[in-house]
Fold this sequence. Notes:
The protein has 14 helices and three strands.
Amino acid sequence: MSLQGPWAVLSAPGLLFAALGLAALSMPFMTLSANRIVAGDGVLAWRVADPSATLPGLAAIVAGLMLGLPSGRTRLHLAGAVLGLGGVLWVLMQGASALLDGAGDYARVSPSVGFWFLLVVLMLLMADALAAMTPRPLLRAAFLAAALVATAAILSSGALSDLSVMQEYAGRRDAFRSEFLRHLGLAFGSLAAATIIGFPLGILCHRRSRLRNATLPVLSFLQTIPSLAMFGLMIPILGWVGTTVPGAQAIGIAGIGFAPAFVALLLYSLLPVVGNTAAGLASAPAAAIEAARGMGMTPRQRLMRVELPLGLPIVLTGLRIVLVQNIGLAVIAGLIGGGGFGTFVFQGLNQTATDLILLGALPTVVLALVAAIVMDILVELARPTQTVTQ
């Protein structure tokens, strides 16, 4: 969308982001509470600390939003987003220590709605700038790596250690590492198992229409089962297997725990893998298939040299769907003892501790976002019609 008349020099998305960002500054930026459970009192951004401490950050936020206004200046928009995010971080750091000063031993300080709103607005400004710049896949990977390194440096520096969510992490450091690995095992393990099962099945569905017509409706039906119901169904089924099959419990198969969560995620993963494999192989142009036949290629050679390379982007798109989906669904595994970040989410719900919920929710969101970006890069690199350079 472009503006008309004298407004044409302004970017329509930038104008929207600036309006939303300035509105966010009128919302509570941080919350101060007496302890980790009770609701706190919201504090505006310019009142979280002494004005001399918050002014540089507030100025950076406003300047960053203003840099997003000129039309067609994508690099300026990107710089504005980075500057604005730096300002948000500065105000958060200053406010965390200032609000806790003299507030009591059990007091907790947390980001409030204004912070999250500003964070989303500035991230959208950055995403809009990057989309307009259309960076090459390897350059996008470099941007992602830089963002992850910067985030890790900030978190490890201790600059945000006064925040309640970081105090929750400090008290559960070993458990967080364990649940992180369990979450990865659920998401990536189910993806690997679905690929091992679904890829050959997708090839067979591509070759045999009867098998495709029988298989895809069944897998589609599995997708319609609500996630909580699917996890619940696995409990009695695998509980029976664990008690009746010799050696099943010895390898971890039981009604609760990792196994039922893993099987549920595997069942959800099969439709995207099988369907996209069959669709990707079917997307190969008929002329290319006929040319391969004319060259005397066997069906196996046509599959490996023609159909699979041409259909690889669609196949990878299916894997992307599975990975992002399973990272999110793995949170529910915490309900049945499967571990993962859902453990913190449901503990926080039981204790009405918002920051404990965030300790599980925020890493899940970041993990899903990183996985989606990485898979998008792989999909673009796999496109045979496009020469990708850095």
